[in-house]
Automatic annotation (TrEMBL):
Enzyme's top EC category: transferase
Official protein name in the record: Precorrin-3B C(17)-methyltransferase
Phylogenetic classification of the source organism: Bacteria, Pseudomonadati, Pseudomonadota, Alphaproteobacteria, Hyphomicrobiales
Annotated metabolic or biological route of this protein: Cofactor biosynthesis; adenosylcobalamin biosynthesis
InterPro entries associated with the record: 4pyrrol_Mease, 4pyrrol_Methylase_sf, 4pyrrole_Mease_sub1, 4pyrrole_Mease_sub2, Cbl_synth_CobJ/CibH_dom, Precorrin_MeTrfase
């Protein structure tokens, strides 16, 4: 008997930013796999079982979830934000590709969610209003020199950048190196948005210039959006400024 596997994105943190489709998928599942803080955010019923794990164990978690679904379980793998953005959906696909043939016939669905950069961007204005890219600064799965190359290429091409996984205890210096690199390729006035815990009670959104951007302004719950020289800041006396990237190219970068 083959069961089902649903990979769900719960959004950035507050229940209002979880889609009704995600809430329905969670209500219908019986076994839940995920990084424990993500599982903690769900209000599961007594008949729903938690299988929490640490955040570095994605592939093992995906395999466990697939094995349970193959045995007939109604399984849900949970990610914060969107499950396809630096999260579990790709881990599940990798496990299926390398796994036993029977995993390919599991009833699989992937339910999208509001990813961190969208939640942060909405708080700041419209910094992703023109072409943009997302880069994870984590060196768990790729070397730092590749990250540096992508940052420089994106800056030269005039993309707004959203940095995920910007800093951790294991690599406290790299975010500062990333800002130094950007200062060689972008004007000092480029706005940099630090969006921490968007959508949660401890949310903090702060915009500074590239000159003033410092690694201490970020932690692992922060998504950083780096504008281009086209990105505008509208001061609003007393209120947070509005930051936006105009829809049309103004020739400021690339
Ligand atoms: N799948 C998630 C991203 C997982 S990677 C998503 O789509 O949002 C984890 C990184 O996401 C964190 O280091 C941080 O950079 C970012 N992040 C997740 N939730 C966030 C939030 N509520 N506010 C700001 N950044 C967040």
């Amino acid at each position: 008997m083959t069961g089902s596997l649903v990979v769900v994105g719960t959004g950035p943190g507050n229940p209002e930013q979880m889609t009704p489709e995600a809430a329905a998928a969670i209500a219908a599942a019986e076994d839940f796999f995920g990084y424990f803080p993500y599982l903690d955010r769900l209000s599961l019923r007594h008949d729903q079982r938690r299988h929490a794990s640490d955040n570095r164990e994605e592939l093992a978690r995906a395999r466990e979830a697939l094995a349970m679904a193959a045995a007939g379980g109604k399984v849900c793998v949970v990610s914060g934000g969107d499950p396809g953005v630096f999260a579990m959906a790709a881990a599940v696909c990798e496990a299926i590709e390398a796994g036993p043939a029977e995993w390919r016939s599991i009833d699989l669905s992937i339910v999208p969610g509001v990813t961190a950069m969208l939640a942060v961007a909405a708080r700041a204005g419209a910094p992703l209003g023109h072409d943009f890219c997302a880069i994870s600064l984590s060196t768990n799965l790729k070397p730092w020199n590749v990250i540096e190359k992508r940052i420089v290429a994106a800056a030269k091409a005039g993309f707004v950048m959203a940095f995920y996984n910007p800093i951790s205890k294991a690599r406290p210096h790299q975010l500062g190196e990333a800002f130094d690199l950007l200062r060689h390729h972008l004007p000092p006035s480029v706005p940099v948005i630090f969006g921490r815990a968007a959508g949660r009670p401890d949310e903090m959104i702060r915009t500074v210039t590239l000159t003033d951007a410092a690694p201490e302004m970020a932690d692992m719950a922060t998504c950083i959006i780096v504008g281009t020289s086209d990105t505008r800041v509208i001061e609003r006396g007393g209120k947070e400024p509005l930051v936006y990237s105009p829809r049309s190219y103004r020739g400021g970068s690339a």
